[in-house]
Amino acid sequence: MISVVIEQRPQMLARAAEGDAHAFAALIQPLLDPAYRLAAVMLADRSTAEDAVQEASIKAWRKLGQLRGDAGSLRSWFLSIVANECRMVRRQRWWNVVKLAEIRPTQGAGNAFDAAATDLKSALLRLSPDERLPLVLHFYLDLPLEEVARTLGVSTAAAKSRIYRTARKLRSDLTLEEVF
Amino acid sequence: MTREDFRRELGDAFDSISGSPDPALSDRVRSALVEAPERRGPVWIAALAAAVIAVILVGVLLVGNPLNRGPLVPGGGGSNTPSASPAPAPSPNPSPTPVVQYICGASSSFTGTNPPPSALVSDVRTGAHADSGYDRVTIEFKNGQPESIELRPQTDTKFMTDPRGDTVTLAGKVGLKVVIHSADAHTSYSGSKDIKTGAGFTALREVRELGDFEGYVTFGLGLSGTGCYHASILTNPTRLVIDFQTS
Asked: A129 to chain B: which residues are within 8 Å by CB?
């Protein structure tokens, strides 16, 4: 299904640009999973993340005319809209409240690996959402540095620097080689 | 630590934060896109936004003194704000700029403007929002706002099931009964009929389906504390959202 979507991307993009909502829905369908994961990590709330992805999809649909480049640019463009939506959700705290209730501490005394994993998770959640963003894009969604840079709207060098700087906040002894 | 170790550890940590998306997310997005208003140019949107803001401003000026108004807007026709039975007298020392006004002890209702023959309940979920002082229950509808929704507070948590008439007692000290007409909760909803909230919730203790019979869907909500609530109808997707004050 996904490969079919990728092969037909240019045609679907053209149809979407002409106002075909179904074509646009098919076009972004493979991107919903990474979009959700990005939003869930930025917001630390799964339900709010799904709402944010839905809202971002509608905004992307309305802004489709602003997409620069071909269908290959779609992923970074769409993820940047999702990231912006997450920022907006966090700003509207009176209505769309970001909670950490779903993040439950590990019960009982686990083994050393569990403890390390919990430490890393706690450290991630202590980062600001914007600090988590480049890490999610590069390490979780496996985007190449160039695409991370496009999503963040910065140069590749700046994206690399942000990733390394933030990774060092998680593990201060990390070397550049261990990160990239 | 190798690069692969670091990536794997990070991936595991991210996985535990995000989990997997709801399988229905794709359908939900598709549906929202298809139902979304047609795309327009930015100038058109700006003009529309300006017109809407102007209408709202004029409305506010005409109605006057909105901040000292009671928490409810009485009214008949379809609305996304609740109409309600008489509310308690306003506090002699109201807070200067309340963001959300909670209803305490008064019933309220919503009326759908263009309801489907039977609004299909598609999801029921709860959320704790300790930072902002409320717990939330959301009842989502697949195909639009139902004909009517009534919210009836009560001073205990004993509810009668429909149609059997059995008495059930929910967790908590006070209750809120939600009566939805015309609706059904068996066509598009297969989730839990009895949600008991856990740690993190201080106001909302239990959400239980009391009945789904002859077009009436009834939920009983067991609450701790005052039972003060704020209800609204949101769209895309259509959902009833009830927040219970926790602080």
From this structure: none
Residue A79 and residue A60 share a domain: yes
Give the pLDDT confidence score for residue A106 in this predicted structure: 41
Confidence tier at B245 by pLDDT (50, 70, 90): very high
Please compute the mean of the pLDDT values over residues A36-49 and round it to a whole number: 92
In the predicted model, what is the mean pLDDT of residues B188-193?
90
The verdict on a CB contact (< 8 Å) between A140 and B11 is yes
Rounded distance, CA A127 to CA A99, Å? 15
Q: Indicate the residue among A72, A103, A134 that finishes a domain.
A: A103
Mean pLDDT of A69-73: 73
The domain in which residue A99 lies consists of 1-103
ipTM above threshold 0.85:
no
Residue A29 Ramachandran class (φ > 0 left, ψ -120 to 50 alpha, else beta): alpha
CATH number, residue A169: 1.10.10.10
Q: What is the DSSP letter of B162?
A: B
Could you tell me if A172 and A97 lie in one domain?
A: no
**pLDDT tens per residue, range A86-114:** 988 887 654 444 444 344 444 444 455 45
Is residue A21 domain-shared with residue A74, that is, in the same domain?
yes
Closest residue of chain B to A54, computed from CA coordinates:
B29
Which of A139, A178, A180 is the closest to B2 by Cβ?
Answer: A178
Do residues A21 and A76 both lie within one domain? yes
A179 — contact with chain B (CB < 8 Å)?
yes
CATH number of domain containing A34: 1.10.1740.10
Number of compact structural domains in chain A: 2
| End residue of a domain, out of A40, A69, A103 | A103
Q: Of the candidates B28, B39, B130, which has its C-beta nearest A99's C-beta?
A: B130
Question: Binning pLDDT at 50, 70 and 90, where does residue B176 land?
Answer: very high
Q: Which residue of B has its CA nearest to A20?
A: B34
CA distances from residue B24 to A46, B21, B31, B209, B230 in whole angstroms, order as listed: 13, 8, 11, 22, 28
Grade residue A117 by pLDDT with cuts at 50, 70 and 90. Answer: low
Q: Cα(A134)–Cα(B138) distance, rounded to whole angstroms? A: 32
Question: Same domain, yes or no, for A15 and A79?
Answer: yes
Residue of A nearest to B28 (CA): A54
State the alpha helices, DSSP H only, in chain B: 3-18, 25-35, 42-63
Q: Looking at the complex, does the CB of residue A17 fall below 8 Å from at least one CB of chain B?
A: no
